[in-house]
Design brief:
Blueprint: E1 4-7, H1 13-24, E2 28-33, H2 37-48, E3 54-58, H3 64-78, E4 83-86, H4 101-128, E5 132-137, H5 151-171, E6 175-182, H6 188-191, H7 196-204, H8 214-224, E7 236-239
Parallel strand pairs: 1-2, 1-4, 2-3, 4-5, 5-6, 6-7
Helix pairs in contact: 1-8, 3-4, 4-5
The chain binds NADP nicotinamide-adenine-dinucleotide phosphate.
Length: 247
């Protein structure tokens, strides 16, 4: 039986790339989405055509009840979540003096509480079966502040790194919990609205002189959940092409 992977926020961007790459490698896929219904349905069709099982479920990860309902549906139809990829995230960029506490709370709700809700809900299943893998998609912004507009986003991604360490303790010894911190990844949403000059300047801050592709993050996820990575636990791996001036 294939392992069942739940990827949050998987209808587009990095989550979609992870879903496709894992489906090609014989994992059964659950696409979680919040508003991208059409994209989620199209992706589901594509994945089903690859010959693995696939569900697409609408749920807001920041809402405990919606996460509970989503995982119950997965348990009923697929047996349970073996691998959880906490990928859903929002970035409500704004200048510091315009940023509101409500915006800050919303970012923490999705980026941190969302990951907590999903991890908590799959906890018993993973412990009972003595197997599981959890990957949290943080950001290099959670390690070193990169953009001044992202005060709440940066704090949320740092909190997700901290959450990773605590989850690794809670889920040990059978479940490995790791964190991936991408740098600039050229998803459609990320590139939207950037002009050529800005993109060039951003790429000059990266040692390999380009932004990353969502598929490159997916390859790292694929490795980290494979048996080859069984001894990799409780760690944070940057995937950023080498950001100049940071280590
Ligand atoms: P994206 O294209 O904006 O995708 C993020 C997804 O999160 C969206 O598809 C959205 O779903 C989902 N989402 C948002 N709020 C949600 C909620 N409450 N419940 C469930 N799903 C929710 O972003 P991306 O660039 O692929 O980023 C994916 C992850 O990588 C994020 O955590 C991001 O912070 C992180 N990251 C990205 C970069 C980058 O350069 N792209 C760099 C570092 C880290 P709907 O569309 O269905 O609403």
């Amino acid at each position: 039986m294939n392992k069942v992977v739940l990827i949050t926020g998987a209808a587009q961007g990095i989550g979609k790339a992870i879903a496709l790459e894992l489906a090609k490698n014989h994992y059964d896929i659950v696409i979680n989405y919040r508003s991208s219904h059409k994209e989620a349905m199209e992706l589901k069709e594509t994945i089903l055509n690859l010959g693995v099982r696939c569900m697409a479920i609408c749920a807001d990860v920041s809402k405990e009840q919606e996460v509970d309902d989503m995982v119950s549906q997965i348990e009923k139809e697929m047996g349970g979540v073996d691998v959880l990829i906490n990928n859903a995230g929002i970035d409500l960029s704004n200048l510091f003096h315009l940023k509101t506490a409500d915006e800050f709370r919303k970012t923490m709700d999705v980026n941190v509480i969302g990951a907590f809700n999903c991890a908590k809900r799959v906890y018993h299943h993973m412990l009972d079966q003595e197997y599981g893998r959890i990957i949290n998609i943080s950001s290099t912004n959670g390690i070193n502040t990169y953009y001044p507009m992202c005060i709440d986003y940066d704090a949320s991604k740092a909190a997700l790194i901290s959450l990773t360490h605590n989850l690794a303790f809670e889920f040990a010894p059978y479940v490995n919990v790791n964190c991936i911190a991408p740098g600039f990844i050229g998803t459609e949403n990320e590139l939207d609205g950037y002009d050529e000059e800005f993109l060039k300047e951003e790429c000059e801050k990266i040692m390999v002189n380009r932004y990353g592709n969502p598929e490159e993050v997916a390859y790292l996820v694929k490795f980290l959940i494979s048996s080859e990575a069984n001894f990799i636990n409780n760690t944070v791996i940057r995937i950023d092409g080498g950001q100049k001036g940071s280590c």
